[in-house]
Amino acid sequence: MGRKALGSALTFVFVLVFNFFLFRIVQKDPIGSLFRGRNVPQETIDNLRTAFGLDEPVLTQFFYYVRETLQGNLGISYQSRQPVWNEIVTAIPETLVLIGVSAILSALIGTVLGIAAAWRRNTWKDHTITSGTMVFYSMPDFWLGMLLLVGLAVVFPVFPVGGIVDAGSNATGVDRLLDQLHHLFLPALTLTLAYLGEYALITRSSLLDVMGEDYLVVARAKGLRDKVVRRRHAVPNALLPVVTLAAINFGFVLSGAIAVEAVYSWPGLGKATADAIRGPDLPMLQGLFLVFSAAVIFFNLVADLTYAYLDPRVEDS
Amino acid sequence: MTITSLAMQRRRATAGRLWKQFRSSREGMIGLAVLVVFALMALAAPLLADVRELNPVFARGQGNPQWAPPSEFGPLGTDYIRRSVWAQFVWGSRVSLFVGLAASVLTIFIGSVVGIISGFVGGKTDALLMRITEWFLVIPFLPLAIVLASILGRSVWNIIFVIGVTSWPSTARLVRSQVLTVKQRLFVDRARSLGAGGWHIVSRHILPNVSGLILANATLAVPISILTETTLSFLGLGDPSSASWGKTLEEAFVNGAMIRNAWWYFLPAGIGILIVVLAFTLIGRTLEELANPRLSRDR
Fold first, then answer.
1. Which CATH class is domain B45-273?
2. CA angle A141, A144, A145 (to 5 degrees)
3. Mean pLDDT for chain B?
4. CA-to-CA distance for B293 and B63, rounded, in angstroms?
5. How many CB pairs under 8 A join A and B?
6. Does residue B175 come out as left (phi exceeding 0), alpha (psi in the -120 to 50 range) or beta?
7. Rounded Cα gap, residues B84 and B53, in angstroms
8. Separation of first and last alpha carbons in chain A
């Protein structure tokens, strides 16, 4: 476990280095881009260069960068003139709610569909589930979002077109919560439909693998009913790869919702990214990129540890 | 009969066998048929729609109506600046297919080179290359692509470069593990004991044996490339001068096609993407099963 945590820490260091140099290449002259075209005396620019440590050697600058980043200072956003860290911290809860709900729902529904398809393989049920999930898997997630938006918010205005609460609403308590759920429904539905295909396909093939195993024949020979064989013997073993996928995916879907958040103006990390692109707001992009990478590293570690816990055959090597 | 013509004959026989196996797969044949239709459309674009229809000035001069549904302006209506949606669909297929294919070629090239070097050379080179690969696997793909595309600027070639540079790691891992198994086979030892050099072994013995896997992988990389191009274009990182399907969707969204329920504007491009992605996935899965029969999904 210690070794895995150390590996993750090393990866994070790599991401820090990568992030620093990537944006160093782009912004050869950060002070110049700060004033973009305005007439500023050379003296002021020189003073700012010194103040920001830009005349120091690159290694020293990298040291500053790491020190400030670890203290949560990610610079100032070009667009809002607020600290990037504050912007990100306000967006994180919104993204976590949306991603959390749709990740859990897609994993649950996808797994159930996968089990149903594998257990009744090559029947119409299997074909319907497999081809249906493949269709959702093959469309751009934001386009699915656009279709649901037109269908359920424009043509049949059952749900709001975007945002997180009704504009001008100052409801509190239960009313506010209901309003938020009302706004959450469409983006969560979009992401759930977009992601469940992967779970269904993986569960299906994993269960098909398990179904050839001897111990299932034994379970049947004991006279156990079909349902019991499935629930007690086949499914628990087949779910192993699914659990890992779920943990790894959680890190990735955090950044996968960028376009869907933009469609529904859901004020999370994804929309912040979409807005930062228009600038381009480089400090904001740099900070978001760091947060997205850290999330993937963290959830990879969680996946590794869960896997080792669930499957004793995996040694801590 | 020379040695080369013998080799040619053998290769032709292998290709024939592969085609015969492929033809027996319904999934694969449906995918291929759909793909041929779209490829023909992309190639015949100048015959199907006037490229000038993409220019808003020309569209206005033609007297096209604005936001016209297909019933008023065939076959697919017009958009917010009076351009024909049909023309955008036809010419967009060119850009989307080209970017998808070119980015996949780049992905597969980088992935295969890294995988073959890593697997064949082994030792410290392998350890280093695999470390880098793991790091790239961890960096979230879409944000990295977004950052790179914002930095490099908006052009078709940059999008291809960005997709290629960000999506090679899984191919590299796959190819490496295949190379490791092939390397153990007897014919490699035999070639080496006959004095064959590294390049000869790789090009004549390793490569032919991993090429099936690489081909399957390449086909499965195309849908991912197309979807990535679509997402990047939708986020405003597409090439302003050449309109892909993703760009059409972005313009439809930004200019309020959703609120107007201008379905003729945002449906065709999305359906095009869906069908092409599905076709490549079906072909890729079939090829994957041929390259690795143990994967067969119908046990």
1. mainly alpha
2. 90
3. 86
4. 58
5. 119
6. alpha
7. 6
8. 9
pLDDT tens string B240-285: 888 899 999 999 999 988 888 888 999 999 999 999 999 999 998 8
d(Cα B211, Cα B205) in Å, to the nearest integer?
Answer: 10
Q: Is B122 left (phi over 0), alpha (psi -120 to 50) or beta?
A: left
* Closest to A66 in 3D by CA, of B142, B207, A58, A285: A58
Cα–Cα nearest to B108, from B146, B31, B160? B160
DSSP letter for each residue of chain A:
-HHHHHHHHHHHHHHHHHHHHHHHHH-S-HHHHHHTT----HHHHHHHHHHTTTTS-HHHHHHHHHHHHHTT---B-TTT-SBHHHHHHHHHHHHHHHHHHHHHHHHHHHHHHHHHHHHTTTSHHHHHHHHHHHHHHHS-HHHHHHHHHIIIIIIS--S-SSSSS-TT----HHHHHHHHHHHHHHHHHHHHHHHHHHHHHHHHHHHHHHHTSHHHHHHHHTT--HHHIIIIIIHHHHTHHHHHHHHHHHHHHHHHTHHHHHHTT-TTHHHHHHHHHHTT-HHHHHHHHHHHHHHHHHHHHHHHHHHHHH-TTS---
Q: What are the sequence ranges of the domains in chain B? A: 45-273
Residues of A in contact with B281 (CB under 8 A): 134, 138
The ipTM estimated for the assembled molecules is 0.88
Contact B142 A11 (CB under 8 A): no
Which residue of B231, B261, B270 is in closest CB contact with A155? B261
Stretch A226-242: mean pLDDT, rounded?
A: 82
pLDDT tens-digit map of A247-271: 777 777 777 689 999 999 999 999 9
| Cis amide bond preceding A280, omega within 30 | yes
pLDDT for res A69: 85
CA dist B175 and B177 (Å) reads 6
Q: What angle do CA B49, B55, B57 make, to 5 degrees?
A: 130
Residue-wise DSSP of B177-229? HHHHHHHTSHHHHHHHHTT--HHHHIIIIIHHHHHHHHHHHHHHHHHHHHHHH
pLDDT above 70 for B295: no
pLDDT in tens, B53-94: 888 888 788 878 888 888 887 788 888 888 888 999 999 999
Mutate to test the interface with A, among B99, B134, B138, B289 (most CBs of A within 10 A): B138
Q: Does B232 touch chain A (CB under 8 A)?
A: no
